[in-house]
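Long-time lurker. I teach an intro course on protein structure, and each term I like to show students one example going from raw sequence to a predicted 3D structure in token notation. This year I'd like something fresh instead of my usual example. Would anyone be willing to generate the tokens for the chain below so I can use it in lecture? Attribution to the forum is fine with me.
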Amino acid sequence: MFSPTDIRLMRRALELAGRGQGRVEPNPMVGAVVAAAGHVVAEGWHNACGGPHAEAVALARAGGTACGGTLYVTLEPCCHRGKTPPCTEAIVAAGIVRVVAAAGDPYPEVAGGGFAALRSAGVTVESGLLEAEAIRLTAAFRMLVEGRRPWVIAKWATSLDGRLAAEPGGDRWISSPASRALAHQVRGRVDGVVVGIGTALADDPLLTARPEGPRRAIRIVLDGTARLPLESRLVRTARDWPLLVAVGPLADAGRLARLRSAGCEVWQGTEVDPGGRLEELLRELGRRRLTNLLVEGGAHVLSTLFARGLVDEIHAFTAARLIGGDEGTLPTLPDPPAIEVEEVLHPGGDLFVRGVVRRPRKTTSSACPE
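-- Reply from a regular --
Happy to contribute to a lecture. Here you go:
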């Protein structure tokens, strides 16, 4: 059905789409290539939320050379008017005669309507080329639309003997500077960075990306009883870098008032159970259209997320060092998930593994504004 040229140009479109990472959310990353007689005449990608879509960029660059050509695009073209005009109209107006798409768009206002609009205008539409790659590329967008929550990335660093942290007063860092630089890159492209109150009290972190990336993640502390000290670095910087303190229904009102006065946003869940409250928080973050969420610990928070099937991606660092002892390890999970490894690196002599959790999902469709 698809030729080697089709495959080559779709791979290029997927590569282009990745350039939008951290810049387009909550929209999906999309890339497009315009070709005539098998030769590329223009390329484009979605570069910013609210900006022109990949198809519109590529067609504008192609100009009259697009007429009679083929458009390769990683996601079904939109057919509704959001912050930008429908891409289907631009495709038809440009004289494109064939559209090759990698995957359909789950967003309810598109969801097959883009393909239908193009076919009704006489454009040949073929879909499914490199579909798995395209679905993975837009996994966080799909989770937000279908699951109504952010894509959850669980990150941790351990020693060779499985310890999460050194003894108090010892070396603060387990991983190498190169590993920490890699972790900061991820912080700079996500919408939120989460830690539990235990980690906040033990480490007094800032949770900012250094240097800053394309996004400014909101810092989130899971703090059921509002124990986060006003003198912590998180609270002291709350007016400069957003901080949300997620508390339980029984948290002291006076403590909440003091946190708010210090510049913190306080979100108070209704669930007494911490696990249920964590799920409640994820739904709230989904309503706020946070797309990627990086959870950096501690062990209890990570194990709760895994136990409830809420982890989508893992970033695991293993440092080439031994610490000893029997505290601070990741707990044993009763039903450990299957991990599909996507990347293995050796930053600064450490081992870094990135992978996705593979499991059946039950999702509910919901609108996510373009």
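Some talking points for your students: The two ends are 32 Å apart (CA to CA). DSSP finds twelve helices and 14 strands in the chain.
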